[in-house]
Amino acid sequence: MRIEIVGHDEAHHGSQFLISYLCDQRVAIDAGGIGELAPLSRQFQIEDVFLTHAHLDHTATLPVFLDNVFNPGPECVRLHGLRATLQVLQQDMFNNRLWPDFIALSTPQNRFLETHELEPERAVTAGHLKLTPVLLRHVIPTVGYLVSDERSTVAFISDTLPTDRIWELARACPNLKAVFLEVSFPNAMTWLAEAAAHLTPDTFRTELAKLGRDVPVVAIHLKPRFRSELEREIHALQLPQIQIGRAGQVFEF
Ligand SMILES: [Zn+2]
Ligand SMILES: [Zn+2]
């Protein structure tokens, strides 16, 4: 499975300001940055977008992306999210004030998007990939994903406080090949990490211990403002399986 951290490394020194990942080029997890992918043909390749939650760093370029890929006709992008996530988008984004109501504008003849409500722990098939959403612990309803093809499973765990269920399910995957795990604030800002429902390097380490085996781990969702401090604290964990994700980086699992 090919996983890409969407973003521009050259300009941002590895920081990912807006969050999205591409799985085999055609499935996006989150829509923070996909509306900026260049060339535009890369956006046309995306057929399914799976949202973790509604926060703006994960949805910011969704309106632009849908505008970019709209092609008059019945074919359109499928947008998957929890009911709570889709409700926020309908009420706060596609409301004809912030952006046209692409949901109401979609008719069987001309569709901007098709929304699909996710049920926690019910797998959804998108092309050759299968995605299982699993509830995390964030300030609004949020899911992580287990993404599988015929050979591999990769876990995406972001945004969250310490959690258990997704680790239990990840442990049960014999072909788990990698974990992408959030770590947002340095240890000195534990108070803010707790208030904003995120991990620090300390809680990142205790979360990883729940997996009970070594697979490659990619640290993601580092707040750009604290990136160098976070890099120091993550290196100090001295866990060889961990690497720090960089914007634009591509992995093959
Ligand atoms: Zn969030
Ligand atoms: Zn976030």
Explain the overall architecture.
The chain has a single domain, classed as 4-Layer Sandwich (Metallo-beta-lactamase, Chain A). Helices cover 27% and strands 24% of the residues. The chain has ten helices and 14 strands. The strands form two sheets. A seven-stranded mixed sheet has the order 6-5-4-3-2-1-14. The protein is globular. The N and C termini lie close together (5 Å). The model has no long low-confidence stretch (mean pLDDT 96). The structure holds zinc ion (2 copies). Residues 53, 55, 138, 159 line the site of one zinc ion. One zinc ion binds at residues 19, 55, 57-58, 159, 221.
Number of strands: 14
Proportion of beta-strand residues: 15-25%
Structural class: alpha/beta
Strand order of the largest sheet: 6-5-4-3-2-1-14
Number of domains: 1
| Residues in helix, % | 25-40%
Which ligands does the model contain, each kind named once?
zinc ion
Identify the overall geometry.
globular
Low-confidence stretches: none
CATH class categorisation: Alpha Beta
What is the gyration radius calculated from CA atoms? 18 Å
CATH homologous superfamily (4th level) name: Ribonuclease Z/Hydroxyacylglutathione hydrolase-like
| CATH level 3 topology | Metallo-beta-lactamase, Chain A
Q: From the structure provided, what is the oligomeric state, counting identical versus distinct chains? A: single chain
CATH architecture: 4-Layer Sandwich
Write a short abstract of this structure.
The protein contains ten helices and 14 strands. It is an alpha/beta fold and 253 residues long.
